[in-house]
Amino acid sequence: MAIKSAYLKDVYADVAKIDGEQYEFLQAVREVLESVEPVLERRPELKKQGIIPRMLEPERIIAFRVPWVDDSGQVRVNRGYRVQFSSAIGPYKGGLRFHPSVNLSIVKFLGFEQIFKNSLTGLPLGGGKGGANFNPKGKSDEEVMRFCQSFMTELQHHIGPDTDVPAGDIGVGSREVGFMFGQYKRLHNEFTGVITGKGTSFGGSLARTEATGYGVCYFTDEMLQAGGKSFQGQSVVISGSGNVAIYANQKATELGGTVIAMSDSNGYIYDPNGIDYKIIQEIKEGKRARISTYLDYVPSAKYVEGCSGIWTVPCGVALPCATQNELDLESAKTLVKQGCFAVAEGANMPCTQEAMEYFVQQKVFFAPAKAANAGGVATSGLEMTQDSIRMPWSFEEVDSKLHEIMQNIYHNSANAAAEYGVEGNLVVGANIAGFLKVADAMLWQGVCG
Ligand code: NDP
């Protein structure tokens, strides 16, 4: 696909002129502009009101210094970010990522995607994202705590339960969320749901940990059923071995699939008998060790150095759940050639634009991230509700709401695709369905909305 209308070409060129170095952000922008082209043809008022250029400019970008002291007494400095992209339909909502690769482009691409993803959930959530170029790997708990406290000491000026509610992402799990929540509570002397993904003893929602991985599988299951297929009897390959990957493994297995390969940034494991998610949970969440140690538990399995090789493993269903642009065109061709008929993005933008277009062309069932992985933020939204009403719900209640939300996202995306003449193209369908709600809210709220 390419941007066809002269108007959208100009809009894209304007963004590229200002943000030309922000490769990931431009990639995310291009995909949305290509998708919403037919909407602008039907709704000329969106052009007159400058809805698209307004959406492409974050409402606010905050960048800040994060000084902290390591265990040897050495002072260190990282850069923190929060991009408050859109509050058209609710308070800014989106995770914090701690990883050495974090920069403004990454945070902006994630924040931009988050606008549409949050809209798709049907909940009143705006879009934002943040993080720091800090690597928690190899740091002691005390170092991570000091970093998180320093990060929150600045971030607290810009967030609040009705303003901006961050959550976790890569490198930010329950440990980091707990440290940041504790610091916010101390500085504000208030116990509010200002961050989600909290421990369940202090306002966290049951099933939030599992939500993104489960949600990917609920969405995939709905998509497969609509096409007369299912997980039953399928080999499943899942990249990554973090929060999303672990629980995608659990749910895909429960739905009848066999997860035969998983990875981390060093390499991948292959176990044709099926990888038990509990072992990965112990390795990654318990010991914070490398995935290669899976061989200590299952000596008959195979470990291969290098993570991208995972896409050479033949499978029916592929769930990229690690990081952006991890699956390129060559990998996509290999997957399809070897019988892969369904791909669902658990990570954010894990397929390159070319890979995604190839899957769509080849009529592979393709579930784009902003629809397929929206279960995490949806459950964060449910955590916000529980915090507000001061009433926790059971695991089953949250899980059944999550399931229903994922089914709705599938049908809304599929219906939008059909309505705009691209039946089966969930990339376009999800973009249009997410976009329309935000665009309408902006129209109602006037030029500053
Ligand atoms: P985690 O930090 O828990 O896990 C990330 C995993 O991916 C780790 O196993 C990491 O390995 C691995 N990884 C990183 N880079 C690569 C690579 N190039 N190839 C293979 N594996 C790699 O993060 P999450 O599971 O939370 O997030 C994963 C993705 O899902 C991200 O894109 C995130 O934005 C997205 N997401 C997460 C949500 C959530 O609720 N957690 C919600 C929606 C989206 P290593 O340990 O070696 O670094």
Task: Describe this protein's structure.
Strand 3, helix 5 (104-120) and strand 4 (127-132) form a beta-alpha-beta unit. The chain is of the alpha/beta class. The chain starts with 5 loop residues before the first helix and ends with a helix. Helix 1 (6-19) packs antiparallel against helix 2 (23-42), helix 15 packs across helix 16 (395-419) and helix 16 crosses helix 17 (426-445). It is globular. It has a 7-stranded mixed sheet with strand order 9-8-7-6-10-11-12, with helices on both faces. Strands 1-2-4-3-5 form a 5-stranded mixed sheet, with helices on both faces. The model has no long low-confidence stretch (mean pLDDT 97). It has helices spanning 6-19, 23-42, 44-48, 51-56, 104-120, 141-155, 174-188, 208-226, 243-254, 277-286, 294-297, 329-337, 353-361, 369-372, 375-389, 395-419, 426-445, and strands at residues 60-69, 75-86, 92-98, 127-132, 164-167, 235-239, 258-263, 267-270, 302-305, 317-320, 342-344, 365-367. It binds NADPH dihydro-nicotinamide-adenine-dinucleotide phosphate (NDP). NADPH dihydro-nicotinamide-adenine-dinucleotide phosphate is lined by residues 168-171, 212, 239-245, 263-266, 307, 321-323, 326, 346-348, 373, 376.
